[in-house]
Specification:
There is one protein chain. The protein is mainly alpha-helical. It folds into 2 domains: 61 residues, no CATH class; 136 residues, no CATH class. The protein contains 9 helices and 2 strands; from the N terminus they run ααααααβαααβ. A two-stranded antiparallel ribbon has the order 1-2. The two termini are 25 Å apart. The N terminus is likely disordered.
Length: 219
């Protein structure tokens, strides 16, 4: 059985900072002994920052519709980038390999064969890049090997085809920007508390450790 690593104080702070005042007030009603020391400290800090009183329920916000948010602890950066490297090799590997073999051995002599070969390999790269995170339980091949998965933050379900395509499309748009465009998404992964890049926010997804996933979790 795989043991989950304890949630750090910073992770609790990030989680409570994104929680609604009503959710925080509900936690204040829980016996403190049922919370971990880190959870108690982060909850007290956030409640004090918002001026919440345990004995007075906060007034509802009529302008804000309740939206479920299933946010998990940030996935390890090393595992994320390793999974990305594996998926890049799987997606672009056939394209690069076909080009090298054609250059070295002239396997495809005719322009027609060369075109067919290139179209087939590029199609595979685009297909895999767009759908990889919707494979199985929200796991591309690279993420599955590294123990990661992608979930919907509004559904707590594994990533769908639509969400996977949305994540890939945003990455493609930024990638089209010379030099700096390739850095925007990785920087947001490193800089944000939950590790969600812009593509994740657009598609309402998050990359998490598969061991952290709770199928029946409620926000």
């Amino acid at each position: 059985m795989e043991l989950r690593s304890p949630i750090s104080l910073d992770e609790y702070r990030a989680r409570y900072a994104r929680s609604s005042s009503h959710d925080l007030w509900a936690l204040l009603q829980v016996d403190p002994e049922r919370l971990t020391p880190g959870a108690r400290q982060a909850l007290a800090e956030e409640a004090a920052r918002r001026g919440l009183d345990r004995n007075v329920a906060p007034a509802p916000d009529p302008t804000r519709a309740p939206i479920a948010q299933y946010i998990y602890p940030k996935a390890p950066l090393g595992q994320r980038f390793a999974a990305y490297a594996i998926d890049s090799i799987i997606g672009m590997g056939p394209v690069i390999t076909a080009g090298i073999f054609d250059f070295l051995f002239h396997i495809t002599h005719s322009p027609l064969n060369r075109t067919i070969n290139m179209v087939a390999t590029v199609t595979w790269a685009l297909y895999y890049g767009a759908t990889k995170d919707a494979r199985g339980t929200g796991q591309s091949i690279g993420k599955k090997l590294l123990g990661l998965m992608v979930i919907g933050t509004e559904t707590n379900e594994p990533c769908t085809i639509g969400q996977s395509t949305g994540r890939a499309f945003v990455r493609f748009l930024f990638g089209a920007i010379p030099v700096i465009g390739q850095l925007i998404e990785p920087i947001t992964v490193v800089a944000t508390d939950d590790g969600r890049r812009i593509g994740d926010r657009a598609a309402s997804t998050q990359v998490i450790r598969a061991s952290d996933y709770e199928e029946n979790r409620r926000p």
